[in-house]
Design goal:
alpha/beta; 7-stranded antiparallel beta sheet; 35 helices; 19% strand
Length: 1076
C-alpha cells in the first residue's frame, strides 16, 4: 500500500539533549525521519530542545521548534500548527514518554492528532514491565522471575522470596537509569529508592539475577502486512550484568548455534506480533544460559533504539528511514534498498564481515564515583570498527577510542595495579579487556579467565590469537620480518604503533617497511547483502585482503576528518560542523570523503557525504585512505581536537591541509609566541607562565600570585584544568596536568575571580572577518565554557564593550592567519577586556550560534576553505545587526549517573550535552533552557540557601526575590544570619556535621524544593558535598554558582508571569538572502 494521503502535516518529537543512555543516535534517527518524510511530501513540524544537532537545522523540517519536550510545550505547538499526526518513535525514551503523557492528558484527542508509528497500547505493552511480562506469558516465552514494587515496603517483601543478587529495573527510564544489581539488603534499598524516584510511573521491576548468562539483541522491523525482517543480531562480549550500552558488542552474533539463532529469531518476530508493532523497528534483548540453553526475554523497545544506529551502520540498512516510511503507510516490499537499488527492504540484510562496538567512558571527570560497570549505563560515547574478522575489527576499535591507546595493549602504555590485578578481571570495568590480554601474556589460560569473567571462551580464544601474534613479533628486528609475518600481524588487527613498540622501531619506519613489502590494505564495501548484489553506495572499510572495491572518482576530492567518539569536551557539535562542511563542499563541486568511527552520528550516514570510510582517526588509518583517494586536501579544523592532533604529521607527509594551517594552530597554542602577538596588538591577557615541574610552577606562582588557573596544553573540554588556591593544591594538580599532556608545558594563568566570561565565534578568509556571535556566560569566569550557560545577544555587557571584543577578534584572526572558523574566549573585569585563549578551529558553540542567528557558520567556513570570499556571500552586517529574540544555551550534567562525584562546576568540563531556550527577554529564554533539562522548575516550596563567605552579601537579594515569589527560605546558621539581618524570614537548619535532623535529612525527606549552595576551594567531602549529592540523588534543583542562582530566580518569575511562548527558528532573527 502506498503512503497515506489523509495525513498532510506530521509532528515529530526529538530526543532532547545528549545524556548518558540517550545520545546522538537519536539525532541520526530523527534527521533521517525528517528528511524522508519531507521528501515524501509531508509538512514536517519538529520539536527538539537540542541546538547541537543536524536534526534541528531549519532545512530538515518545515517548522523547527527548539523548545522543551514537555506536554505543556507540545500542546502549544499543536495548537499553533494543527498537525494531523504525531510520530514519537524516533525520539528515544524522551519522545515516547512525552507522547504517552500528551495522550493521557487528552491533548491529542482535543486537537484530533493521530499517533503514528506505534499506538499507546503498543507503547505501554512494550515499555511497562508488568504488561510486557504478561504478554510474554501469553506466547510461551520465559522472562526472569520477577515482581513489581511501588514502594520500599513492596520491594522488601518481594526480595525476601526472590533472594539476592536481585536486578532492579525502573519502568520508563533510559540507559538503565536508576537501576542496578543488589547483592545485599542495604544496596537493595538504596537502588530501589533511587529507581522509584526516577521512574515517571514510580514502578520498579525486581527480577532474579541472570548475571553471567550470555546477552543478545535482535534489531527487528515489521509492517502492517506482517512482513518482518531481522536487520541484525548483536552479541554482547560481556556477560549479563553489564548494561548493553557499556558492553563491547559484536555483529553479527558470533557464538550462537544455528538452532539457537533460529529460536531467537522466531521469538523476536512472535514478540513484535504480540506487542503489536506493525509500523516500525524494535529492539529485543535476550539472555541465554550457556550451561543449559535456557533462554529468557529481558526487554524490548517498541521504537528505534540506541542499538538501531549501530545496526544501521553495521549493515547499511537505514532502520530509522524505513521506520518513518512504515509509519505513514508503506510496507517493506514497497521500499527500495538504497545501497543495492535492486532489493526491497523486506530482503533481510546479510553481512560478510564483523562489526565491533566499544564504549567510551569518562570516569576521569568524576573522581570519587564507583567505576564498576553494572546495569546502569555510564559510557558517554562509542566507536565502531569493521573488519573481516572479530580480531581485526577489535584492534581497529581499540585504537579508535581517543584515549591515547593504539590497540589492545603492547603500545608502551600498559599500566596495571598488581595488587588488584584479578579484580581487574573479575569486576567489570572500562579497562577489563586490557587486563584480559595482559593475563594471557602472563600465561593465564582461557578457562581460568572465563571463570573470572564469564566471557564466552570463543571471544577469549580470539584474543589469545592476537596475543600470539604479538609474541611472534616481540623482540624481533623490524628488518628481519618478511611480508608474511607483517601481513599476519595486520590481519590480527595490530596497528603500526604496536608493531613499532614490539620491534623497538617507530611507526613511520613500520609504515615504510610495510609498504615496501607490499603489505598495504584494500577497501571493501558495506553492501547489506554479502556481495550478492552490486553496491551503489560508496561506504567502505579497510582490511588486508586481495580485492579492492573502491569505485573511481569523477571529481576532485576533499577528505573531511570527523570527530571520533563522543566524549565530554568533544561531542555532537563537532559532528554537526563536519556534516555542514560535507554539504557545503559538495555544493561547490567537490566529491566529499568522510572519515569517522562513530556509529551514532549523521556524519557516518552513508548519504551525508559522497564517500564514507568507517575507520579510526589515527595517522596510519587516515594515510592509508589518503594513499587510496589522493584528495586535493584534508579538512582538519571541523572535528575538534581529534583531527587537529594529526594535522602536523599529515602536512609533513605531503598532505595539503585546507584552511587554517598547522603553524597558525600551534601559534595559538604556544603560550610565549601567542603572548607576544597579544602584546604586539595591544590586547590584555591575564598574567601567565608555563612550567614543566612543580618547582617551575612555584616560581610562576610567586611572580603572579594565587589563585592560579592550571591547564595542560592541547586538550579539549578543560581536561585536567583546575583552579589552585595555594601551594598544596598547585603541587597536586601539576602532577596530574603533566600526566595528561606530558609532551607539552603546563599553562598557568592568574585567575580573574569575579570576571564575566565571553565566547565569540568568527570566520576569517584572510582578508575579512565575520563575527558570527558574541555569547555572554551566565556563570562567572572559572566555570568551563562548555558547562556554563550563555546568551546571545549579551544581556548585561555594554555595547561599547561588545564592539571592543569584536575588534580584538578581528585583529587576532588576521594576525594568526586563520582561514575558516575561530573561537575566542574573553574575560571582562572592571571594564577591562582580557583574552583567555584562541582556538583557530570549530568550537562546540558553532551549532548554537548558527541556530540563534540564522547564519550557518560551518558552511560559510567550508566555502571560505574552498576559495570563496566572505564579501561575496551576502552576509548580514555583524556590527549593526540586532536580534529579535534572546537565546540561551545551557549545559546538561550527568551527575545522577555518578554517585559519589561532586556536582560543583569548575574549569574542567563535565557536561554531556546542551539545550537551548529562546524568548523575547533573557528571563524567558533562561526559563525555557531550564525546563528543557529538568522538564520542571520549582515554582513554590522551600528554598535552601547556603553560600560561602564571599557570596553572603549577594545572597540577600536572591533570598528576597525567592520570598517574594512565595518560597520559604531555609539556611544553615552562617547564611541565615546574613538573610535575617536583611529582615527576610528564614528557618535555620543544622549542617550534616552538627547533628540530626539536618539539611541532608530534609532533602531526603522531600522537604526541600530548591538548593543554592556555593562552595569555596577544593574540599572534597565537606558539608556542601553531602548537600549537593543528596539534591542530585532526590531530583532537587541544585545550583552551585550565585550568577546561575540569579538567572534561575528571574526565570521562575518569568514562568510565574506566564511569559513563555513558542516560536520556530525559521521565524525569528529572519535574514533575507542567507541560505542555511
Amino acid at each position: 500500500m502506498p503512503k497515506r494521503l489523509d495525513i498532510k502535516k506530521i509532528l515529530v518529537i526529538g530526543s532532547g539533549p545528549i545524556v548518558i543512555g540517550q545520545a546522538c543516535e537519536f539525532d541520526y534517527s530523527g534527521a533521517q525521519a525528517c528528511k524522508v518524510l519531507k521528501e515524501d511530501g509531508y509538512e514536517v513540524i519538529l520539536i527538539n530542545s537540542n541546538p547541537a544537532t543536524i536534526m534541528t537545522d531549519p532545512g530538515l523540517a518545515s517548522k523547527t521548534y527548539i523548545e522543551p519536550i514537555t506536554p505543556e510545550f507540545v500542546e502549544k505547538i499543536i495548537e499553533r500548527e494543527r498537525p494531523d499526526a504525531l510520530l514519537p518513535t524516533l525520539g528515544g525514551q524522551t519522545g515516547l514518554n512525552c507522547a504517552i503523557e500528551c495522550a493521557e492528558a487528552g491533548i491529542l484527542e482535543k486537537y484530533g492528532v493521530e499517533l503514528i508509528g506505534a499506538d499507546i497500547d503498543v507503547i505501554k505493552k512494550g515499555e511497562d514491565r508488568k504488561l510486557f511480562a504478561e504478554a510474554m506469558g501469553r506466547i510461551g516465552l520465559e522472562v526472569p522471575r520477577h515482581g513489581y514494587a511501588y514502594s520500599l515496603k513492596d520491594a522488601r517483601e518481594f526480595v525476601e522470596e526472590l533472594g539476592f543478587p536481585a536486578v532492579i529495573r525502573p519502568s520508563f527510564t533510559m540507559g538503565g537509569a536508576g537501576g542496578g544489581i543488589a547483592y545485599n539488603h542495604d544496596e537493595f534499598v538504596d537502588i530501589v529508592a533511587h529507581g522509584l524516584a526516577l521512574s515517571p510511573v514510580h514502578e520498579v521491576l525486581i527480577e532474579e539475577s541472570v548475571i553471567g548468562w550470555k546477552e543478545f539483541e535482535m534489531e527487528v522491523m515489521r509492517d502492517k502486512n506482517d512482513n518482518a525482517v531481522i536487520v541484525c543480531s548483536i552479541e554482547n562480549f560481556d556477560a549479563m550484568g553489564v548494561h548493553t550500552g557499556d558492553s563491547i558488542t559484536v555483529a553479527p552474533a558470533q557464538t550462537l548455534t544455528d538452532k539457537e539463532y533460529q529460536r531467537m529469531r522466531d521469538a523476536s518476530l512472535a514478540i513484535l506480533r504480540e506487542i503489536g508493532v506493525e509500523t516500525g523497528g524494535s529492539n529485543v534483548q535476550f539472555a541465554l544460559n550457556p550451561a543449559d540453553g535456557r533462554m529468557t526475554v529481558i526487554e524490548m523497545n517498541p521504537r528505534v533504539s540506541r542499538s538501531s544506529a549501530l545496526a544501521s551502520k553495521a549493515t547499511g540498512f537505514p532502520i530509522a528511514k524505513i521506520a518513518a516510511k512504515l509509519a505513514v503507510g508503506y510496507t517493506l516490499d514497497e521500499i527500495d534498498n538504497d545501497i543495492t537499488k535492486k532489493t526491497p527492504a523486506c530482503f533481510e540484510p546479510s553481512i560478510d564481515y564483523t562489526v565491533v562496538k566499544v564504549p567510551r567512558w569518562a570516569f576521569e571527570k568524576f573522581r570519587g564515583t564507583d567505576e564498576t560497570l553494572t546495569t546502569r549505563m555510564k559510557s558517554v560515547g562509542e566507536v565502531m570498527a569493521i573488519g573481516r574478522t572479530f580480531n581485526e575489527a577489535l584492534g581497529k576499535a581499540m585504537r579508535s577510542l581517543e584515549n591515547g591507546r593504539f590497540g589492545l595493549g603492547c603500545d608502551g602504555k600498559d599500566d596495571f595495579d598488581e595488587h588488584t590485578f584479578d579484580q581487574g578481571l573479575s569486576i567489570p570495568n572500562e579497562k577489563r579487556i586490557f587486563f584480559i590480554a595482559e593475563a594471557m601474556r602472563r600465561g593465564r589460560s582461557v578457562e581460568e579467565i572465563h571463570t573470572l569473567t564469564n566471557i564466552d571462551p570463543w571471544f577469549l580464544r580470539e584474543i589469545e590469537k592476537i596475543v600470539a601474534a604479538e609474541k611472534r613479533l616481540a623482540d624481533c628486528e623490524l628488518s628481519a620480518l618478511g611480508r608474511d609475518e607483517l601481513l599476519s600481524a595486520k590481519k590480527q588487527g595490530l596497528s603500526d604503533e604496536q608493531i613499532a613498540y614490539l620491534t623497538h622501531s617507530d611507526a613511520s619506519t613500520v609504515r615504510s617497511v610495510r609498504k615496501a613489502l607490499g603489505v598495504t590494505p584494500s577497501f571493501k564495501s558495506v553492501d547489506t547483502c554479502a556481495a550478492e548484489f552490486e553496491s551503489f553506495t560508496p561506504y567502505y572499510y579497510k582490511t588486508y585482503d586481495e580485492q579492492d572495491e573502491v569505485s573511481p572518482a569523477t571529481k576532485p576530492r576533499v577528505l573531511i576528518l570527523g570527530a571520533g567518539p563522543n566524549r565530554i569536551g568533544q561531542g555532537i557539535e563537532f559532528d554537526y560542523c563536519c556534516v555542514h562542511a560535507a554539504y557545503a563542499l559538495s555544493d561547490k563541486g567537490y566529491e566529499t570523503v568522510m572519515v569517522n568511527c562513530n556509529p551514532e552520528t549523521v556524519s557516518t550516514d552513508y548519504d551525508t557525504s559522497d564517500r564514507l570510510y568507517f575507520e579510526p582517526l589515527t595517522y596510519e588509518d587516515v594515510m592509508d585512505i589518503v594513499d587510496r583517494e589522493k584528495p586535493e586536501g584534508v579538512l582538519v579544523t571541523f572535528g575538534g581536537q581529534t583531527p587537529l592532533k594529526l594535522a602536523r604529521d599529515l602536512e609533513n607527509s605531503g598532505v595539503t591541509i585546507l584552511g587554517t594551517k598547522p603553524e597558525a594552530i600551534d601559534l595559538a597554542e604556544d603560550r610565549k609566541r601567542f603572548s607576544a602577538i597579544l602584546d604586539e596588538l595591544g590586547i590584555l591577557y591575564p598574567a601567565a607562565g608555563t612550567a614543566n615541574s612543580f618547582e617551575e610552577a612555584l616560581e610562576v606562582a610567586r611572580t603572579i600570585g594565587f589563585p592560579l588557573l592550571v591547564r595542560p596544553s592541547y586538550v579539549l573540554g578543560g581536561r585536567g584544568m583546575v583552579i589552585a588556591y595555594d601551594e598544596r593544591y598547585l603541587e597536586k594538580y601539576m602532577e596530574e596536568a603533566t600526566k595528561i599532556s606530558p609532551d607539552h608545558p603546563v599553562l598557568l594563568d592568574r585567575f580573574l575571580e569575579g570576571a564575566i566570561e565571553v565566547d565569540l565565534d568568527a570566520v576569517c578568509d584572510g582578508t575579512d572577518v565575520y563575527i558570527g556571535g558574541v555569547m555572554e556566560h551566565i556563570e562567572e569566569a572559572g566555570i568551563h565554557s562548555g558547562d556554563s550557560a550563555c546568551c546571545i545577544p549579551p544581556y548585561t555587557l555594554a555595547q561599547d564593550t561588545v564592539e571592543r571584543i569584536k575588534d580584538h577578534a578581528h585583529a587576532l584572526a588576521l594576525r594568526l592567519g586563520v582561514y575558516g572558523l575561530m573561537n575566542v574566549q574573553f574575560a571582562v573585569k572592571d571594564a577591562a577586556i582580557y583574552v583567555i585563549e584562541v582556538n583557530p578551529r570549530a568550537s562546540r558553540t558553532i551549532p548554537f550560534v548558527s541556530k540563534a542567528t540564522g547564519v550557518p557558520l560551518a558552511k560559510i567556513a567550508a566555502r571560505v576553505m574552498a576559495g570563496e570570499k566572505l564579501a561575496d556571500m551576502n552576509l548580514p552586517n555583524d556590527r549593526t545587526r540586532t536580534f529579535e529574540r534572546y537565546c540561551v544555551k545551557e549545559a546538561v550534567m550527568p551527575f545522577g549517573r555518578f554517585p559519589g562525584a561532586d556536582s560543583v562546576l569548575g574549569p574542567e568540563m563535565k557536561s554531556t550535552g546542551e539545550v537551548m531556550g529562546s524568548g523575547k527577554d533573557f528571563p524567558s529564554a533562561y526559563a525555557k533552557s531550564q525546563l528543557s533539562i529538568d522538564y520542571s522548575m520549582p515554582e513554590k516550596g522551600a528554598a535552601f540557601l547556603s553560600v560561602c563567605d564571599r557570596d553572603k552579601r549577594n545572597i540577600v537579594h536572591i533570598a528576597q526575590s525567592l520570598a517574594y515569589l512565595g518560597f520559604d527560605i531555609v539556611s544553615t546558621s552562617g547564611t541565615a544570619k546574613a538573610i535575617a539581618a536583611a529582615g527576610i524570614p528564614v528557618r535555620t537548619v543544622l549542617k550534616k556535621h552538627e547533628g540530626r535532623p539536618n539539611i541532608v535529612d530534609e532533602i531526603t525527606n522531600g522537604k526541600i524544593d530548591l538548593v543554592i549552595n556555593t562552595p569555596f576551594g577544593q574540599g572534597t567531602r565537606s558539608d556542601g558535598y553531602h548537600i549537593r549529592a543528596a539534591a542530585i540523588r532526590h531530583g532537587v534543583t541544585n545550583v552551585t554558582t550565585l550568577s546561575a542562582a540569579e538567572a534561575l530566580v528571574s526565570a521562575i518569575g518569568a514562568r510565574a508571569r506566564g511569559e513563555l511562548d513558542v516560536c520556530p527558528i525559521q521565524e525569528f532573527n529572519v535574514l533575507e538572502g542567507v541560505e542555511y
